[in-house]
Specification:
Length: 156
């Protein structure tokens, strides 16, 4: 009897595992997340996983006036948007109302979030922009000028 139970448990546990490379059906919708920000086009560029398992995605999102903004969105480990982050799970970062593209997200050891990307300055030249946020998505105002640090040297 005990052998039968153990055999049944081992068969159940083997058959319930997904194969390596299969989508996790418990994440998002059948293993996928599809989002749009600003109601138009978005593209995830990088992701970082916080120590608590929450996922932060750096997104390039097209606005209604056809410029791009940096966007960070945080997901719970099950793929649902974490509404406790930023404003309802999303935060936007913009440099001067011009195009902000190719965002990258990094995590500091203290939990702060760094967002780096390419922006256009007032003279319409490419610059590197760096933002720092607290782990909850609020702006870290102790960094740079009110949380952002646009680097003035232009790409050639």
């Amino acid at each position: 009897m005990i052998l039968t139970i153990l055999f049944s448990i081992s068969i159940f546990s083997i058959s319930s595992k997904a194969a390596d490379g299969d989508l996790d059906s418990g994440f998002g919708t059948n293993g996928l997340i599809n989002e749009s920000f600003h109601g138009i086009i978005s593209r995830h560029n990088t992701v970082a996983v916080q120590p608590d398992g929450k996922i932060i995605a750096a997104v390039n999102s097209l606005t209604s006036n056809f410029t791009n903004d940096f966007t960070l969105v945080r997901y719970n480990s099950n793929g649902n948007i974490d509404t406790s982050f930023g404003t309802n799970g999303i935060l936007y970062a913009d440099v001067g109302g011009k195009n902000d593209i190719v965002p990258t997200v990094l995590l500091q050891a203290d939990g702060k979030i760094i967002l780096v990307g390419q922006s256009r300055n007032a003279r319409d030249r490419n610059i590197i922009s760096i933002f720092r946020f607290n782990s909850d998505g609020t702006t870290d105002t102790s960094f740079g000028t009110s949380g952002d640090l646009p680097i003035a040297s232009a790409f050639r």
